[in-house]
Amino acid sequence: TRSERQQNNTIYSLRTSFDVTDDLQLNVNYSRSRESGVQGYFASRESLYAGGASANEGALKGTANRETNNDRNNLFEVTGTYDLDLGGNAVELLAGYSWQEYDFQGFGGGGRGVASNAFGFDNLGGITDLAEGTSQLYSYRNGYRVIGFFGRARMSIGSAYNVTASIRRDGTSKNGPENKWDVFPALSASADLVDALDMTGPNQLKLRVGYGITGSLPNENYGYLQLFGNGPSAPFGGSFVSTIQPNTNPNPLLRFEKKGEFNAGLDFAFMDYKLTGTLDFYTRTTRDLLFNANVA
């Protein structure tokens, strides 16, 4: 047997920053990655299992196939940050927009009945399956898009306290038409108790608490639609023809899987940081769980 793949990866990005004022900065980023490749598989006429040599005398010997793909990922993002100095306190504001698109496409073919081992997988036109109309030929193209608007506010009160609040509004083409968009908020705070209470014993006592909601994309790019695939061959007009059959039911309510997580923790250090540790408590609740279910 012989298996081979040639792959080319191209990645480039452009980024620029502009200081609108001393406190306001604008950032623009664009990146693109592309993966293209071609691969082949060949099993000789003498290969017992992959090539079919162990089958009966009339069976086709040798297997060959080729496949190519061309995948792209484009990302565009704009963010703006504003820093405000309030003497002993500080505020940092961030707002942004994100756009990302994926595109996957490719085709391939192959079958049994290799006339000669000399060509390997480089002469698919000579395989017997192709002449008899039973070769494996296929092509595909699919993709999806994710768009997000987001903002974050962070406030430092002295050197002891920090509070951060954020919110995202994300949408994706993977979701059903009635649930394209959703909102994901988060809030967290921390306090350095050694600094806040002017403690002399411990080197560090930092209390943390936070709650946030995150989302997961559906696995399938078109899971909200009714999808069709190749079915069994059926007799028609004196010969067998390919058929198409439904593979999935439509789900117009398909949406993000959402995880809400609460976390509280304490970081501590004693004896000149010779004794350190962390205590954490968290709980997570998942809603709109994504999974495939068989229906009668």
Radius of gyration: 29 Å
Tally of DSSP helical segments:
2
Q: Into which percentage range does the β-strand content fall?
A: over 45%
Largest sheet: number of strands, sense, barrel closure: 10 strands, antiparallel
Question: In which range does the helix fraction lie?
Answer: under 10%
Enumerate the spans where pLDDT stays under 50 for 5 or more consecutive residues. Answer: none
Overall geometry comes to: elongated
Structural class per helix/strand content?
Answer: mainly beta
Query: What series of H and E elements makes up the topology?
Result: EEEEHEEEHEEEEE
Q: Mean pLDDT, nearest integer?
A: 91
Distance between the termini: 42 Å
Kindly state the number of beta strands.
12
Strand order of the largest sheet: 1-2-3-4-5-6-7-8-11-12
How would you sum up this structure, described in words?
It is a single chain. The chain has 296 residues and is mainly beta. Helix content is 3%, strand content 64%. It is built from 2 helices and 12 strands, in the order E-E-E-E-H-E-E-E-H-E-E-E-E-E. The strands form 2 sheets. A 10-stranded antiparallel β-sheet has the order 1-2-3-4-5-6-7-8-11-12. Strands 9-10 form a two-stranded antiparallel sheet. Strand 11 (257-270) and strand 12 form a beta hairpin. The longest helix is centred in the middle third of the chain and has 5 residues, at 128-132. The two termini are 42 Å apart. The model has no long low-confidence stretch (mean pLDDT 91).
